[in-house]
Fold each of these.
Amino acid sequence: MARLIVVFLAALCAAVSPVFSQNQEWYPTESTELGEMFVSGSPTKRINMVFLSEGYGANKDAFLSDAGLFFNEGFFQEEPFKTYKAYFNAANIWVTFRDAKLAVSDTLNVQVFSEQIVGKYFPKYKSVALVSINSLTEGGGTGGRIAYPGDSSHLFAGAQIYGDFINRSPRQPDTEYAYKNYRNAFVHEIGHALGQLGDEIVGNDGSIDRREPRAGEIGYANTTTMTDRSRIRWKAWINTDTPIPTPSEYKDSIGLFLGASRYSYGIYRPKLNCMMRQTNYPFCEVCREALVLEMYRLVTPIDSAWVNVGETVTTFNINLLTPEPNTLAVSWQVDGVEYDYASGANSFRVSEDLLPYGAHTVKVVVRDTTSFVRDDPQNLLVKTMEWPVVNSPKPDFNRDGVVNMADFFLFADAFGEKSV
């Protein structure tokens, strides 16, 4: 199982709950405070989303308020994150600097700052940092994957603050629109970082409006230069009666719409509007599928497993992370043969009478049948677990509950005979 993602900076705090605690030392010039916002399980088995206070200066109240609003009214209200909420943990980290007015973006590139934290304290985790970038003018954000020495990568999502609304206290009504854009900008950037999605933005600068994409700028699930229907990445989502390329009157359909990656010509996107183009729209079906597939690269729905061994019956058990609504299908096999009576069950009872003497394999298969995914060539939505089992003969051959000379004589009488 891949070891996980999105900034798990909880370990930077010396005294936190057992779920997040790693009791690591922090830079002496700063202190941190962890706020657990949503904990569904062990950080090693979840995608851990952490909202960092960079960009908020000394305004801790605004930071905590925005973190709560982001997760409760933003991130977990967007599909597919709403359906797969159980696959995530959410937390915030408040960083206090010696200079209360100092923000990291004033002195250091925020990506480098986040990379240093994750690289220094979490070399075994894949992480996404949710970081604000202070700005007095409207802007966008940045998101992606940053390699650093170690055995994982750092996922980074930075959203620019729209206007100076962070420092307004109390919040004014005219900041609500700005906050919604700020919140949605984060969700858009998470699309880059977690889903490895490309921008679907069409060139809006006259100097680049007619430029065509350079080679190497089309390696995303949601952009393509192909106009042959059979070669389009998202062909499983295109109806046979949808024209290719697709005109704007098919705005509610998946097709092949001209313009993406800040180019107006030569490159196409799946839908007229989508979160990866305009942040006031939800993720389109193609981007949503890509996000679900990436989530399954990092998390298995088989959260835990254990075996109860009895005298004559052994029970195999699993505990599942379940989407809401639950689309997981469970099946149990012995030596590749599926047992229908155990279909959909989280446990499987195997009696010694079920198995011939010898070595066997018990296997559980968990498949997500979600309608969010139509094309899963790597079978990412199928997770399995196996147990080797040996059924050995017991010396109570006459099965009277006692091992004695009667069993020995049965053994001696049968010794040398061939089984039929």
Note: The helical segments are 60-74, 104-107, 110-121, 176-193, 285-298, 405-414.
Amino acid sequence: MAEIKKETPRWREWVSEKLNPAQPSIASLEPFASPETIVDYEQAYREIEIIHRAVKMVISACVDTPLKITGSGPAKKVNKLLNIRPNPYEDRVRFFRRALLDFHLDGNAFFYYDGNDIYLLPANDVEVVPDPHTFVNHYNYMISNQQSNDYFGYRKETRKSSAITFEPHEIIHVTSENTSSIFRGTSKLKPLLRLIELYYYMINFQRQFFKNNAIPGFVLTTDNILSKRVKERLLEGWRNSYTTIFDNARHPAILDGGLKIDQFSQVKFQELDFENSIERIQQDMAKAIGVPYVLLKSGNNANIDANQKLFYQHTVMPILNQFCSAFMLFFNNDVEVKPDKLTIPALRPDERTQSIYYSTLVNTGIITPNEARAGLGFPLLNGEDSIRVPQNITGSATDATQGGRPPTEESENQIEEGTSDEG
């Protein structure tokens, strides 16, 4: 398999003279761009249905859109890597689904190119080391959090010095926005952290009362005066017997010593459902991820086509453009990589409207029939590369002396009288 030889572009020939003068200061402020902790985001993706579904929709839409690769040089090789088989061990769909999931949870996607194939590095284990002169010095694949067996079979942790180093010309780095670093992106779910925390609080509260069938808001009253020790023992006994979730639910209580239950809260059990509040949080989560909430609901939605178009234009296409831009920067051999919009039904114009549009352009002599066929995706035909002259102006278009209003009997008589007068 032929290896793609990366030619040095012209702008790199004078890069030593056009370096960023602020780069040394930028690199000194951030010596290492280390991965963030994404445990909360991974847990939210696994457990919160609306987040899992919304992220999965974005990933599926991105993977289902093929990339249109044009240009000279290794365009055919790049097309094979990005649209057919990136490496001998993974198919395209599986490969890019993992990359897009890393992009959402970690905010980064790291591809390793060995000259023939592309492999994906786990984004949360890659550290970016800035360079004081150019931009990135190298990438470290961190294995310090992994364990291995020593000679005697005991588990031991590896050190940072044993990290695998990759050069900048070996890594394709796709990064999302980050307000605190220009070398590493941040998780797409980070803006949802407050909503995720609130969602868990509401679900856990609802789950507790649903399981226990508890009635919130009551106090124990008595006419007797209790000492501090008796109060503490009484409260401790109630905590041990009646506040353990699930174990002692609906356990009967025996009141003695003049104790009575006085309910001071009028909240009913059915009012603890939080249905409206939970749905509002789910809507905010879906909007933050970039998925219209109407696409996640079932039922008859009259404006679903407009929302699908909005979803692709403002969520899917920007993500694909980020990946395509990174690929074009890496394969700097005049290769152009763009998402193929014509394969997306939501972005494809209506066929009837499009056919009328091209027919009008052809019949009015603006474009050739082959140009219209190319716009509609049909093969070209021989002899259809000339402009068609509209039939209603054929005479005047071909000969300026022809055309105009046909002569009448009155006009002919006037012409004859004029000629006779002149005679």
Note: The radius of gyration is 35 Å.
Amino acid sequence: MKNNFKLQSAILIIGIMLIFYLPAFAQKKESELINSYWLTNRILIVGYGEMQMDMVAAVNTEKGVVIIDSGMSPSLTAKHRSIIEKEFGRSDFKYVINTHHHNDHTNGNQVFKDAVIIAHENAVKRMQDENVEDEITAYVKQIRERNERRNQVLDTLEQESELYKKLRDRIYVSGKMCDDYETVYHLTLPTLTFTNTLTLNMGDLNIELVYFGPGFHSDNDIIVCIPGEKIVFTGDLLLAKDQYHRVKSNSDIESWIACLGKIVKSKNEIKSIVAYHVGILPGTVLSNFYDSLKAMRNEQLQKKSAVDSLRAMISILNLQDAVNKFEDQFLKNRNEEYFIWEGDLLSLAKEYEDTEKYDEAIMILKMGEKIFPNSTRVLYGQARIFTKEGENHLAIEAYKKMLSIDPTNYYYVEMIFQLKNIE
């Protein structure tokens, strides 16, 4: 009897210890972290986690339900579908729209095999290229190893912080994705593609799909407009920070402007933008993006590229002298006849990096830091090269600077933790 009492007491103590010492995300049920909210009386957003790490949008129309992006985990998306069916009181899914080919927007396609899956024509090949069995196996191994490290990082964070919640949700969703890759996942390609624009007449409203153009994020990004609801979905085109590093002198800026012009110049007001991985943004963000790209294009037409001038200097001087001359001409005495774009400087540094001329690449990036002091991309370039060279303490300093600019980016915390452990 005494032995039984001791055993029961031991089990109780172990149980209490588990409650207190297991990570907080393990204490919450999956169902508690799957949430939904109405964006309008027709549009439902369903996602996993407090920070919406995995998100599916559903539009209730006369001709059927339309899904915009299908998430990264088929098993989670199946739960999202059940919520949508319950909220809408129907299960007739007409279309699934993939805003681009990346797996966190397309892996859940298989959950909607009863629907027509739509994407830009370039998306199909990209999805096929990224679904090679050996590559998926290697990718899953990499994510699982990374999640082990992330769990260690999680233990060092304040549980109520945004950083903690983001990382917790990312660990869970990416872990579910890996589980699915090994068990239930199968590639489900778009069955309807288009080149430039496509309009879906859904009876009581139209859904307009517009190809953004290549070179900004992928070669198959589309913007989804629902004029009747005053809502636009931008996939991964709009970021909270640093999106203009994607613009380079050889970019197809006119295509981007033309796409945005079709949306911004229409008579339809844009109330909200759904930007995946960012959240719900005001409609003015899209018009500001359009205006900024137009201003950059006008600058390009009216002025000369300072980075092209730097390239010319490098061809006749050694790099250090060329950089010194460039800084005198364009930093100390800003020459208004030229424009300097971050994307062009990053491209030049990457050329040096790709040929293992790391000192030269760092020299360009250090100059870029002076010109663009709030850029995490310039600092990331430095951190990447310092890591390759084994200069981990310098890489850590670069990541710390990035974290001061973007305090809720868990990747920077993760890399600082990893590099410190290597040291």
Note: The first strand starts at residue 34 and ends at 38.
